[in-house]
Amino acid sequence: METNKIYSSSPLKSFPTNGGKGPLSYANNCQYQKNGVVLTQALIYEEITKKLDTEFLLSHLNPFRISDMGCSVGPNTFIVVQNIIEAVKSKLNLNKDMIDFQVFFNDHSENDFNTLFKSLPVERNYFAAGVPGSFHRRLLPSSSLHLVNTSYALHWLSKIPEEIQDKNSPAWNKGKVHYSSSSKNVEAAYAAQFANDMESFLKARAEEIVHGGFLAVLLPCIPNEANPSKCTINALFEFMGSGLMDMVNMGSVDEAEVDSFNVPLYFPTQAEVETIIERNGCFKIEKMQQICRPMRGFTRQEVENFAMTVRAAMEEVPREHFGSEIAAEVFNRFSEKLVESCVFSDPTYVPMIDLFAFLKRI
């Protein structure tokens, strides 16, 4: 039955960010993502105060329910949630006792929820709950959410496309770890997987969000018609692949292991995202805006800090494939190559871009 598929809890691929609060943790190395969240605070606040229908809100049962999907371990998720609550209260001119807020923090079950909940603001003005599971599936009851947010999560694929790991496929990604400088067949396989995942996400959210509710999205993207290999965000994985091939040449990693390793990240264009939303048909685009994140003139320390951000977010990917010792060496080499590169100062590279979208459930 379709219902069984909707509520299935069988695991999809999961690569949690580094947990805890140590020097390699995501909690202490997420400044880049925090800056993006802060940059879009005003956009979310404005859209809520302009577009939230007061009669709609008051006609629905208390409390106002919010979910942050792909929340990781904080602190960025708490910034997002508090901004949403303040916007809703401002729209309704509410005092703190007029309405309750309930927040569902979602991420894969392997996420460090212990650190997340230990970090909850003591003086928060909402009830908090954790919802483990992949957001590519249904997580909550029908029409139970008023607003869903997801930041820096939708570019993670639910799985590596099968054809890029098949030696007999024209999309076999031999010697590469990403699609950015690979063949068009590899890029197309990544794009198709992203489209399938995004469609699954929208379908699930369309069932969970009440009609008139909202979905806020923030994810890394590249300009329409851009060459992926000349986009800074994709160039990062050139360095990772280069470091791995150095290790192959040194004999510390088997070449076949590298051939079977691929990074499950895809950075879409705005046009791709718009097409998927329109095809889904359940959401109206209220606002869509690209936010440029120039990263010119970085000092060595700033570049090393950025490399640490990448490591904290995705170290589990090579760790699962190669083991902890090799994964640590991968990121040590990645940091060195990033520092030595000119990717942040070369004007021929497209700087980091985020895409903000605010959608209404119709």
From TrEMBL:
Q: Which SUPFAM superfamilies match?
A: S-adenosyl-L-methionine-dependent methyltransferases
GO-annotated molecular function: metal ion binding; methyltransferase activity
Presence of keyword Magnesium: yes
Q: Which domain of life is it from?
A: Eukaryota
Q: Name one GO biological process term.
A: methylation
Which keywords, in A-to-Z order, does the entry hold? Magnesium, Metal-binding, Methyltransferase, Transferase
Coiled-coil region(s):
none
- What name does this protein carry? SABATH methyltransferase 7
Protein's organism: Bixa orellana
